[in-house]
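Hi, here's the filled form for the chain we discussed.

Project: internal
Contact: R.S.
Residues: 162
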Amino acid sequence: MLIKQLEWTENRGDFEAFGCFGCFQVVEIDGRWEGTLNDVNEYESFEPHDFATADEAKAYCQSLLEKQVEGALRFVDWLGESLQKVMNVYEIIKKYLLDNNFDGLFTDDCGCLVDDLMPCDCDCSYCEPGYKASKEDLAKEGLTDDDFIVWGKKPEGKDGKD
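And the returned structure, exactly as it came back:
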C-alpha cells in the first residue's frame, strides 16, 4: 500500500502539513528540529522528537502518518475483503468466475467446474471461462447425464454477466 506523502508548507521558517488525524509540525528550536503531531485525539505514543535536520523531522512525521493510516485501516471492512489479503491466481480466477456467474473453465482439450477448479495440473493460461452444458446439450453431443462439458455457449436463462 502506498500512503501519500505529506505536503509541507513553510510558515515563518517552520513547516506544517495536514494529515488525516491532525497537523504535523517541524519546528526549529535552538538549532535542532522537532517533529511533532498536534492532534485532537492526543495520541500519547506520538511524542515530539528532536532531529539534526528539518528533512529528518519531516521523515519522522511521515512515519507517524503511515502508522496512523495503517492502524485506522485495521478497522475498515472492504465488503468482506481484507485490504491486506493477497490472493493467489487460483483465488483470483475462482472469484472472477463466481462473480460473473460462470460454471468453470475450458479449453479444446479439457474443462473443469468451479467446485473442482484446475484439477489437471496443466498450464491453465489458455483456459477460458465457460458454462456447464445442459442435459439437452449433452444429449445432442451423444453424452450421458453423468458427463459434463464446460464450453463457451451460455445456456438460455443464465443470469449474470459474461
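Let me know if anything looks off before we file it.
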